[in-house]
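Checklist before submission:
- one chain only
- standard amino acids only
- sequence pasted in full

Submission:
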Amino acid sequence: LEAQGLIVQTPYSGARVAPVSLREWRGVFLVRNELEGLAARLAAEAMTDDDFAELRAAHEEMAALLADGQLDQMSAQNRRFHRIIGRAAGYTTLAELVEQVLLTVARYRAVLELDPTVWRQVLKEHEAIISALESRDPAQAAAAAQAHVRLQFESTLERRAGMFDSDE
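Returned file contents:
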C-alpha cells in the first residue's frame, strides 16, 4: 500500500491513509480526459459488432451489480467498460495508457466511498458514451467521453473536498 501511495508510514507512529493531492488528482483527470476522448474518437469509427456487444455487456453487468448492491465490484467493471473502448480504438499504446490512468484512478478511489447515487450517474454517462459510439460520430463520442470524465472529477470535488491534502 505504501508503494502505491495509499498509506504513509511514520516512524514510531504507524501507518495512516496518505493524503490525496488535489493537484495530482486534477492532473490524473486532465490526462484521463485527453486519453479517453481520443480513445472514444478513434473507437467511434473502428468498433466492430463484437466490440459493441462486449461494451453493452459490461454496461449491463454494471447495472446488475448496482441493482444487487454489489458496489465493491463496480470499479473493476467500470475499468472493463473503459478498457473495451481503449482497446477498440485500435492502438496498443493508447490502450495501455488508458489502462494505466484507470489504475491510477482506482488507487485514488481506494480512499473514497462511492455510493449508489454516484454509480447511477456513472451509468447514465456510460449510456451517453455508448449512444455516441453507436452513432459513429467521432466528435460526439469524444465529447461524451470527456463530459463523463469532467463530471466525475467535479463529483469528487463536491462530495469529497475534505479528502484532499490541506496544503492545496
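Reviewer check: The helical segments are 22-46, 49-67, 74-88, 92-109, 116-134, 138-159.
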